[in-house]
Amino acid sequence: MENNKVTVLIISNDDKEVKSFKLSTNLISNYRKYLIWISSFVTFVFIILCALVFDSISQRFNNSGLTSRINLMNEQLEVYDSLKMLQKINSIDNNIAMINSYLYERGMLEMGNAGRESLSREKGRTIIDKINYFENKSVLFYKTLRDLPIGLPYYGELSSDYGYRRNPFGGYNGEFHPGLDFKGETGDPVYATGDGFIDRCDWYSGYGNAVVITHRKGFKSLYGHLSRVNVVQGQEVKAGDLIGFLGSTGRSTGPHLHYEIRKEGEDINPQPFLKLY
């Protein structure tokens, strides 16, 4: 076996110990083959590393392109949202203009022609201006609605409408009924339909025990034929407060609530004030 190896001596110039080691003759004779294998392996590793680096660079470029597309989509969505917001604002603006006109026509709101115009027709208005305008209008509408006799004073069946009717006490002659009648049970609660002050709460001729509330803008509401009242003269009341109890006092054919709305002293049809549609 020793014949298959050669001895290599390493001799130093300073006469130090001579070092030696043995190499296989096969290794020496086949060194080219080993060099090719090693070169191939190094080349393979290098190719793998280059592929990884290229893939990493490609991923960065792809991520950059994806980020650009996402940013573009976000910008488009912002434009779309802005357009939708403007449409919503214009829709709200038109609704407010219609509410203005409705309240103005019914004498509930005082304003000039400029106040009845839609804000969207005014140039130079920013979105912030419009939002502030809407906020102020919403507060105004809320106060206006609370000051007016709007809604039902009693949740009972409507038994007699506003206008001319046959005399409920018999006969063939008719009479003008200046309010609405709601049929119910004696002692049922009756509520104020708007904020205001108690104008009177006593016996009121044919109305029997009655409550009259003075509201703003020249409006008054009257609640007649009560079995008893639950307020005092001059008291401030809020919409929804309990003001009395249903009865059949005064000129009445049975337990019911007689409800009137007056504007500047003249009775008007309460029907449009029961609901806002």
Overview of this structure, please?
By secondary structure, the protein is of the alpha+beta class. Among the domains are: 85-147, no CATH class; 157-274, Glucose Permease (Domain IIA). Helix content is 39%, strand content 27%. It contains 5 helices and 14 strands. The chain has helices spanning 25-29, 31-105, 113-116, 127-147, 271-274, and strands at residues 5-10, 19-24, 157-160, 163-166, 174-177, 180-183, 189-191, 196-203, 209-214, 219-229, 236-237, 242-246, 256-263, 266-268. Strands 3, 6, 7, 8, 9, 10, 11, 12, 13 and 14 form a 10-stranded antiparallel beta sheet that branches. Strand 13 and strand 14 (266-268) form a beta hairpin.
Q: Quick summary of this structure?
A:
With 277 residues, the protein is α+β, with helices and mostly antiparallel strands. 39% of the residues lie in helices and 27% in strands.
Let me know the number of strands. 14
* Annotated CATH homologous superfamily of the domain at 157-274: Glucose Permease (Domain IIA)
List low-pLDDT spans: none
Oligomerization category of the chains in this entry = single chain
Helix content range of the residues, please? 25-40%
Q: How would you sum up the major sheet?
A: 10 strands, antiparallel
Work out the strand percent: 25-35%
- Average predicted local confidence, pLDDT: 81
CATH topology of the domain at 157-274: Glucose Permease (Domain IIA)
SS-derived structural category? alpha+beta
Distance between the termini: 115 Å
In angstroms, what is the radius of gyration?
47 Å
